């Protein structure tokens, strides 16, 4: 079992408090006052019994009664201040942590996302951060407040009768041992709960985004069963923490009862022997009962905090994950490039076991359209992934205009590379906002010009709302071809020197493909382009065709040259041509 260090995690959480120190200090002052008012009341009661009642002193009685009223009025004021300020600090810290986490996710390399399920990452930002909120915002307030009452009561008891206080304190080691015993178990149980919650979020994310597949395979019942298992797992993980917290409280209460019994017994004897006044014993008992409450609450809060620290561990794990692809400290800005791309002896694998590219050499001249073809899994997309540094080469080098891509800033590199993938992600926003994603400061004229060049202007005008039409979740309100044309308009607006078209037309039917291809041809004019395509008919006109198999270049040349070689390309072409003539356009 993993061991977690509570103190370290809490210290790390407390580091986030720094910017809010002032507010926290005021909040703690308010707490001290509000807690102190609790401690003063038994003293007043002692005086009522021992002085006022014994001496029949109405004047002091009136003073004490007015004093109690004023005390409670002040207490209300401080209570408000403390709750408001502590909540403010707590929520702010949680907000800051969430922001830090989100910023960190934006810089983590793609390999991080490859290794994790989307739902799991989402759960980190939602469920885990929410659990943290409970730890900091809710429990920290109560913890400090109860601690003030606890210490105040103890000090008063020492003043009242120190011997009796020491007797009461005998239970302290018992309480500490029990809290520790349950605490470590609660922390592990908390990890289990957060893990199961992440499983549910992952399953939800998968089943919502895959709803079409589920319906088409009639797998609703299967999915429900899968969900029920996860839901049940979560339930039992939660019950485990409930069992622990529910056991902890009776233990602590029993220890408190032992203390109160000891006070009544020893205190009773002391009053009978004349070592203590009756008022002092009553005040002492009120303190002891007062004390039991914070002890119980603190043990409860401790349990809660342990559970929340489990969530903190998960958040910190993510924050501590370093990106595999990092910008150098002395990275330079890649100047406006011509588009000379050179892969020199590049080897790369996603998982260190199965090489995706080995000793890959390729030189692309500015303005050239180079097509990458080959069987599925050959390594074509990998070539495209290395260019914008989604991943870094394991060995060899990749240069643009002679500069290694690892020596330049991400922004200046990616600014000059445009990517049109097979399935474009559109955001649930207007067409205009989606096109603007290519260059945020583009003018209306530039947006329209880009849409026109992408063969998208006409269909956009036909949509209700035109450029203000909302495209739906992931662009669901548009057809595949329309989505690709928006993606092309985006790329045109970005105006990159280098283009990567990764199967940009393979999800489209022939009719739609023609329109998109025309837009792509326009987009490629004057730029260096790397085109990945399964349909060889779409790459016939490329300046240079590179055939990749098992991470190596096996053939290269023009369409004609490759056909004449009667190799893999000629084979692939023959198979596709045969399929087409049989009416099975692949
Ligand atoms: N994110 C990833 N994590 C692990 N392995 C991967 C990842 N992406 C690709 N691979 C593996 O790397 C190899 C090359 O994949 P790549 O996607 O480059 O092939 P491809 O030629 O583009 O295939 P396709 O035409 O089917 O898209 C394959 O064996 C694939 O399984």
UniProtKB/TrEMBL annotation:
Topology of the protein relative to the lipid bilayer: Multi-pass membrane protein
Any one GO CC term of the record: plasma membrane
All residue ranges annotated as the ABC transporter domain in the record: 341-575
Transmembrane regions: 24-45, 57-78, 140-160, 166-183, 247-266, 272-292
Location of the protein in the cell: Cell membrane
Entries under CDD domains matching the protein: ABC_6TM_MsbA_like
Chief location of this protein within or outside the cell: membrane
Keyword Acyltransferase in record: no
Name the UniProt record assigns to this protein: ABC transporter ATP-binding protein
Taxonomic lineage of the native organism: Bacteria, Bacillati, Bacillota, Negativicutes, Veillonellales
């Amino acid at each position: 079992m993993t061991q977690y260090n509570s103190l370290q995690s809490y210290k790390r959480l407390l580091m986030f408090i720094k910017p809010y120190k002032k507010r926290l200090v005021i909040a703690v002052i308010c707490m001290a006052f509000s807690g102190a008012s609790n401690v003063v009341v038994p003293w007043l009661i002692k005086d009522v019994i021992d002085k006022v009642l014994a001496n029949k002193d109405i004047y002091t009685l009136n003073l004490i009664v007015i004093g109690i009223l004023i005390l409670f009025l002040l207490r209300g004021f401080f209570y408000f201040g403390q709750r408001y300020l502590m909540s403010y600090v707590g929520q702010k810290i949680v907000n800051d942590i969430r922001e830090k986490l989100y910023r960190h996710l934006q810089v983590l390399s793609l390999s991080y996302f490859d290794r994790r399920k989307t739902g799991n990452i989402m759960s980190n930002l939602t469920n885990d951060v929410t659990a943290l909120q409970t730890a900091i915002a809710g429990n920290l307030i109560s913890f400090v407040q109860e601690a003030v009452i606890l210490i105040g009561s103890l000090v008063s008891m020492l003043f009242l009768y120190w011997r009796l206080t020491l007797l009461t304190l005998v239970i302290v080691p018992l309480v500490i041992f029990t809290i520790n015993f349950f605490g470590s178990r609660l922390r592990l149980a908390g990890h289990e709960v957060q893990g199961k919650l992440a499983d549910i979020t992952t399953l939800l994310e998968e089943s919502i985004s895959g709803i079409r597949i589920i319906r088409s395979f009639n797998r609703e019942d299967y999915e429900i069963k899968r969900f029920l298992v996860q839901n049940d797992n979560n339930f039992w993980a939660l019950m485990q923490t409930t069992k622990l917290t529910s056991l902890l409280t009776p233990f602590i209460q029993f220890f408190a009862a032992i203390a109160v019994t000891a006070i009544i017994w020893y205190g009773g004897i002391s009053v009978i022997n004349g070592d203590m006044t009756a008022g002092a014993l009553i005040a002492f008992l009120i303190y002891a009962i007062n004390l039991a409450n914070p002890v119980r609450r603190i043990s409860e809060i401790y349990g809660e905090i342990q559970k929340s620290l489990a969530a903190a561990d998960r958040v910190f794990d993510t924050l501590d994950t370093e990106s595999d692809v990092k910008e150098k400290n002395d990275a330079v800005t890649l100047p406006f490039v011509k588009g000379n791309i050179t892969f020199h002896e590049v080897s790369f694998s996603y998982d260190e076991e199965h090489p995706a590219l080995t000793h890959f050499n390729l030189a692309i001249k500015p303005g050239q359209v180079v097509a990458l073809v080959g069987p599925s899994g050959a390594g074509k997309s990998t070539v495209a992934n290395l260019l914008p540094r989604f991943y870094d080469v394991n060995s060899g080098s990749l240069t643009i205009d002679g500069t290694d891509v690892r020596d330049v800033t991400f922004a200046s590199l990616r600014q000059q590379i445009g990517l049109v993938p097979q399935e474009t992600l559109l955001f649930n926003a207007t067409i205009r906002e989606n096109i603007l994603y290519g260059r945020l400061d583009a003018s209306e004229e530039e947006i329209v010009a880009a849409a026109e060049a992408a063969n998208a202007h006409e269909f956009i005008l036909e949509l209700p709302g035109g450029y203000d039409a909302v495209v739906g979740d992931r662009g669901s309100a548009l057809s595949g071809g329309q989505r690709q044309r928006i993606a092309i308009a985006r790329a045109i607006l970005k105006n990159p020197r280098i283009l990567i078209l990764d199967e940009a037309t393979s999800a489209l039917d022939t009719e739609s493909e023609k329109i998109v291809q025309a837009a792509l041809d326009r987009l490629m004019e004057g730029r260096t382009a790397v085109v990945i395509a399964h349909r060889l008919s779409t790459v016939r006109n490329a300046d240079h065709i590179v055939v990749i198999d098992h991470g190596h270049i096996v053939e290269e040349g023009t369409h004609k040259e490759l056909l004449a070689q009667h190799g893999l390309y000629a084979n692939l072409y023959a198979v596709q041509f045969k399929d087409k003539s049989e009416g099975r356009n692949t």
